[in-house]
Design a protein that fits this description.
The structure holds two protein chains of two kinds. Chain A is α/β, with parallel strands linked by helices. Chain A has helices at residues 81-87, 126-135, 155-160, 180-191, 204-216; strands spanning 2-14, 17-24, 36-40, 51-54, 57-62, 68-77, 94-101, 113-119, 140-146, 164-169, 176-177, 196-201, 221-224, 240-242, 253-255, 262-264. Helices cover 18% and strands 35% of the residues of chain A. By secondary structure, chain B is of the alpha/beta class. Chain B is globular. The chains are: A alpha/beta, B alpha/beta. Chains A and B meet through strand 14 of A and strand 5, strand 6 and helix 8 of B. Chain B: One of its GO terms (cellular component) is cytoplasm.
């Protein structure tokens, strides 16, 4: 659906990382973990295109008179023109939203361990997922990585859900020093072959490493991809990514916005860069 | 206010359209993708993504990049091919009471003619739009669209293969758009759609590389509108067949300007990416403008530019 949304709050939570809360129609409460929205920032022709953002959380408030209002939240990193403009908006300002869009995460068996791996802003779609998995009584762990502690977002909120958080930073300012995949591998070793599903979102090198770990250990793994998009509804075919059978002779492209943004990592081509 | 007081109907190349607003090929999928956002029966017509004989998977990525007031794309005519189109897309098209115009192309003149013949056999297809102007593929596309003799010969081949209205979509990447338009008209085109995208490029300074994997791409969006308006104006006064204006139409004002410049109908393209309901909104806002102006017939605006 497309709707005009009022900003409830828009705050910088860590240098360059922002958290925005927006009003939504009641039907938005049906958004599932891993889905995204396309946000039109400003009404002018520059920037022209909407920007895609993962849905971080969805909630509702019931007032004394019994009316319920729905809101949702997004996390975003200021990286360019669109996000710079978004960060300048205040509570009471409005933006145009298209969504929720795309195919979200699949939950799988409730009793197996769910291992969430997030890099930097890639944590954004994992919170709603963690909430849903905890609701299903699945054991959930989060492996969060970043360059420094400033890139680790909202860990306390994951902890409040009862999620065990493992952190790693490249500069050692929080948790283990190095890549988050080291801690993930250690935990998988400790699991000693017990069933687990991996869910990952973050920079390409991290996703590639997690996909490889999943493939080596024959574990199911879902990744949420980020891509430059124009339409967000599967029409322009601008956001495609190579699928597992892709080669120069057998092109196999998957549409990130409509077939994803969440894919089984085994369905994608990880060798060559997109 | 009653909408009945304004006539929005236009007749283009033998097609009676409830209004002059269409969606542009490549920006509207096969119609179904937008059915949640647009009441297709409020549009004059909709045009599906460029179709060819065999499935095409398109160009490597990145395929799109935003530029000031526009975007570059190099999708590479990814499409399902005519067999899958007939099997998977036609049932939806059959269910919509709005003319569906199928944009098509081939890699050789023979393939163009074969596509025209196969589309001619489909009752769900109201008209054909030949793409001789895609900037992002080597075979087909723009090779045929930059040489008047070459364009004339493939239009003639397609003309012989179909009795349905035949639109030809023209490239702006030529020195003489009027010569191209006349060649297509002489070869039997029933209408001319213009403009396709302008070839452009974008560079990532720090990587010292082009942003698009295809290096170049087609520029669309509001940035191209002035170029499109001029070309529509030039062509419309040089040919007898109707001209369909395309290029950066974001709102009713833009659409009405194209009509004044001589377009008998218009196509909404990139605007549908930003606002999936853009085409329908443009119809509604055009009607509102007409009412506010006391103008009773949209046809009075076509070519009414005071120069």
């Amino acid at each position: 659906m497309e709707f005009n949304s009022t900003i409830l709050s828009n705050v910088e939570m860590s240098p360059n990382y922002w958290r925005i809360r927006l009003t939504a129609p009641a039907a938005f409460a049906a958004a599932t973990p891993g889905q995204f929205v396309m946000v039109r920032v400003g009404g002018s022709i520059d920037p022209l295109l909407r920007r895609p953002f993962a849905v971080y959380d969805v909630g509702s408030t019931t007032k004394a008179d019994g009316t319920t209002t729905v809101h949702f939240e997004m996390l975003y990193k200021v990286v360019g023109k669109g996000t710079t403009l978004l960060s300048r908006l205040h509570g009471g300002d409005s933006v145009d939203i298209l969504g929720p869009l795309g195919q979200g995460f699949v939950f799988g068996d409730d009793d197996e361990e769910k291992l969430l791996v997030g890099g930097g802003i890639g944590l954004a779609p994992l919170y709603l997922l963690a909430r849903e998995l905890v609701k299903r009584n699945s054991p959930v762990r989060l492996f969060a990585g970043g360059r420094s502690r400033n890139d680790l977002l909202c860990l306390d909120e994951f902890e409040r859900l009862g999620v065990d958080c493992h952190t790693a930073t490249e500069d050692g300012s929080h948790g283990a020093t190095g890549f988050v995949t080291v801690a993930l591998n250690q935990h998988l070793d400790a699991l000693a072959g017990k069933k687990a599903t991996l869910y990952a979102c973050g920079p390409d090198p991290m996703l590639r490493a997690v996909a490889k770990i999943a493939a080596d250990r024959a574990l199911p793994c879902q990744v949420s991809l980020e891509a430059a998009m124009a339409c967000g509804v599967g029409a322009c075919l601008g956001c495609v990514t190579p699928g597992k059978n892709h080669s120069a002779h057998t092109p196999d492209y998957r549409c990130v916005c409509a077939e994803g943004p969440v894919f089984e990592s085994s369905e994608l081509k990880w060798g060559a860069s997109a | 206010m009653s909408e009945k007081t304004v006539n929005m109907n236009v007749r283009v190349a033998g097609l009676d359209l409830r209004n002059p607003v269409m969606t542009a090929s490549g920006t509207f999928g096969y119609g179904e993708e937008f059915s949640e956002y647009v009441d297709l029966t409020r549009l004059g017509a909709y045009i599906t993504k460029g179709l060819c004989l065999h499935p095409r998977t398109g160009n490597p990525t990145p395929r799109i990049v935003e530029t000031p007031g526009g975007m570059l794309n190099a999708i590479g005519l990814q499409n399902v091919g005519i067999d899958a189109f007939i099997e998977k897309k036609l049932p939806f098209i059959r269910s919509v009471d709005t003319p569906c115009i199928v944009n098509f192309f081939g890699e050789t003149p023979e393939e163009y003619a074969e596509m025209a013949a196969r589309l001619d056999a489909l009752p769900e297809v109201a008209a054909l739009e030949m793409n001789i102007s895609c900037p992002n593929v080597r075979q087909g596309g723009i090779i045929f669209g930059t040489d008047p003799d070459c364009a004339g010969s493939i239009v003639k081949a397609c003309r012989a293969a179909t009795k349905k209205p035949l639109f030809v979509k023209l490239s702006p990447n030529v020195t003489d758009i009027v010569a191209m338009a006349k060649a297509c008209e002489d070869a039997g085109a029933d209408a001319l759609s213009l403009i396709n995208t302008l070839i452009g490029m974008a560079i990532d300074l720090n990587k010292r590389k082009p942003i698009l994997a295809n290096v170049t791409g087609g520029l669309s969006g509001p940035a191209v509108k002035p170029v499109a308006l001029r070309m529509v104006w030039l062509v419309a006064k040089s040919v007898k067949v109707p001209v369909i204006g395309i290029g950066g139409i974001m709102n009713a004002t833009d659409a009405l300007e194209f009509l004044l410049a001589g377009a008998s109908a218009i196509q909404v393209g990139t605007a549908s990416f930003i606002n999936p309901g853009a085409a329908q909104k443009i119809v509604e806002d055009m009607e509102a403008w007409m009412l506010a102006q006391g103008e009773t017939d949209i046809r009075n605006l076509i070519g009414a530019l005071k120069v």
